[in-house]
């Protein structure tokens, strides 16, 4: 039998498991477990939703597998009909590294990076095997030959793009030699 004097709603807690990157962003799937306690009449059901309805009945831990900024809402109801206030837990997930492109025009190198989830934090550049430097403005490449440029970007979640390397600069001039002394 249920305790008819129960006027206290249950208490539900949330536990998150996953690899937390930078700035509060998870960089892996996030396992979500809800635990409800009601010491008087007992817990009847726990409900949750990810971002928007529908409300689902919680039965076991579930996995958040989509990138983006999410909100998990949850509450429980006890056997006496007491409903707990709804709780909300923000969860940010970004598992994809940024993508950087290089542009070269008139001796100037610029970089453009895109990250659609947490946003680009910074881009790093290395020229001809020198030290790595943070890209902040177009870089003047010295004339007179080719130069090896390596670069990558890191997003606000801490995901690092694989290092890309390209050769840019002045291409060797093309010499045309006329054979047999015949001019055109």
Instruction: Give the total of beta strands.
Output: 15
Structural class: mainly beta
- The strands making up the biggest β-sheet line up spatially as 2-8-7-4-5
Helix amount: under 10%
Return Rg in Å: 29 Å
Mean pLDDT over all positions:
90
Strand percent estimate: over 45%
The arrangement of helices and strands along the chain is EEEEEEEEEEEEEEE
Morphology? rod-shaped
The total of helices stands at 0
**Residue runs with pLDDT of under 50 for 5 or more positions:** 171-184
Describe it for me?
A five-stranded mixed sheet has the order 2-8-7-4-5, with no helix packed on it. Residues 171-184 have low confidence and may be disordered. The chain has strands at 11-17, 25-26, 30-37, 43-50, 56-57, 62-64, 68-78, 87-93, 99-105, 108-114, 120-127, 133-134, 139-140, 146-155, 164-169. The N and C termini lie far apart (108 Å). The protein is mostly beta strands and 184 residues long. It contains no helices and 15 strands.
């Amino acid at each position: 039998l249920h305790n008819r004097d129960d006027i206290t709603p249950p208490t539900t807690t949330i536990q998150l498991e996953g690899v937390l990157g930078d700035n509060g962003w998870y960089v892996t799937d996030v396992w979500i477990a809800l635990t409800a306690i009601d010491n008087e009449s007992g817990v009847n059901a726990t409900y949750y939703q990810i971002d928007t309805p529908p409300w689902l009945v919680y039965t076991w831990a579930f996995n958040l597998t989509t990138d983006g900024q999410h909100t998990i809402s949850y509450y429980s109801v006890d056997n006496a009909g007491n409903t707990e206030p709804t709780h909300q837990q923000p969860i940010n997930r970004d598992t994809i590294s940024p993508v950087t492109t290089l542009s070269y025009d008139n001796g100037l190198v610029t970089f453009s990076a895109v990250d659609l989830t947490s946003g680009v934090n910074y881009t790093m550049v290395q020229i001809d095997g020198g030290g790595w430097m943070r890209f902040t403005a177009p870089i003047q490449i010295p004339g007179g030959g080719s130069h090896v440029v390596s670069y990558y970007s890191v997003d606000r979640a801490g995901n690092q793009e694989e290092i890309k390397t390209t050769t840019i600069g002045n291409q060797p001039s093309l010499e045309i030699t006329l054979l047999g002394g015949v001019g055109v």
